[in-house]
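Troubleshooting log. The previous structure file for this entry was overwritten by mistake, so regenerating from the original sequence record. Sequence copied from the archived sheet and checked twice against the printout by T.R.
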Amino acid sequence: MPFCKQACHYCDFHFSTNLRKKQDMVSALQKELLLRKDELKNEEVQTIYFGGGTPSVLEIGEINEIIKSVDENYRVIEHPEITMEANPDDLSIKKIKELSDSPINRLSIGIQSFFDQDLKLMNRAHDAKEADLCLNEAKKYFDNISIDLIYGIPGMTNARWEENINKALSYELPHISSYALTVEPKTALKVFID
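Regenerated output below.
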């Protein structure tokens, strides 16, 4: 889902911060699901993954429309894993509750760091406190949560990275993904550090 509230300084992906075309994108996805339904033949769909950009900018109705299109056009197992990538700033208490009442049963949350100085450098839309509140609230409604962390951020020491890992482990989540920051040409971060 190629939409984001704002551009992270390290991002080199195609996305738009203009959400006006969001419903058009949902409709296009539904059409593509229909057009490509014969490609899987008789295989069963075991997982559905909403990736980004930031799919948590979708409304619950839009999420349900896409899942309905998958159900109508493919053989889906009885209890598929349905994951949504999300950012902490999108996961209000209301949104978490709505997602828990939807078919979404796994959250992949882009925490990236538990330190405000890292988050500001990367131009993330959330802060460390919001990350903590989001995870504590999400754990009330979801058993299956993964988080993303980034290491190699300019100015990040090994000690701060270790603190990030220890903080992540304290939530007792089933999965943590760690990514090395790659500073791509023509990104805001590249301009900033040069």
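The CA atoms of residues 113 and 149 lie 6 Å apart. Archived copy saved in two places this time.
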